[in-house]
Amino acid sequence: MTCLASTLWSAPLELVPADPQPGDLNPGLAVRYAYPPDVKSLEQAARLVEDATPGTPLSGLDYRDTADGDLTLTSAQAHNVVAGISGYVRFDASGTYVIDFLSNDGLQASIGGQEVVYFDGRHPCEESEAVEVNVPVPGWYEIEALYFQRTGSACLHMRAGQGEMEWMEDAAFGH
Fold first, then answer.
1. Sequential DSSP letters for 17-86
2. CATH 2.60.120.1560 fits domain 4-17+27-163
3. pLDDT at residue 4 above 90?
């Protein structure tokens, strides 16, 4: 894992706002689920999500660490879940943000056309590497994510900040 200070050595990733900006969005994020007998990597999850079926939308990306056996996100299962997540995230101000995620297990996500996390494999609810991004204008940015949960507990969170990192509120997401 790389510490936050290391992200300062490279230029921030330049995010591209949605064009046109979406109008009337539903709250949360769209999600599709697949339920394989086992899943151990993002590569495997990417193949499985191609045949996924729509699920109940996510309220956002603030899903706290569950107890073993609790359902993963809005899925119908606790274990061996693959989720394809899509929609928009809203940034209320332009500028440089630091973004990271917590996940259990694998997560790959892009915002505004830039990959902001690739955190593969099975692991407990842990922080991903933080990344700096430049938000050129306030508004909506496309977000796409691939997530998988194998066994045990599950979590999925997004944090961002222009100084202090804060959990992204559910109201910042739409689809």
1. --SSPP-SPPBSBEEEEE--S----HHHHHHHHTT-EE-PPBSSSEEPPPPTTSPPTTSS-SSSEEEEEE
2. yes
3. no
142 DSSP β-pair partners: 88
83-116: pLDDT as tens digits: 999 999 999 999 999 999 999 999 999 999 999 9
CA distance 85 to 20: 20
Which amino acid, one-letter code, is at 166? E
Peptide bond into 12 cis (omega under 30): no
How many C-beta atoms surround the C-beta of residue 25 within 10 A? 14
Say whether pTM exceeds 0.90: yes
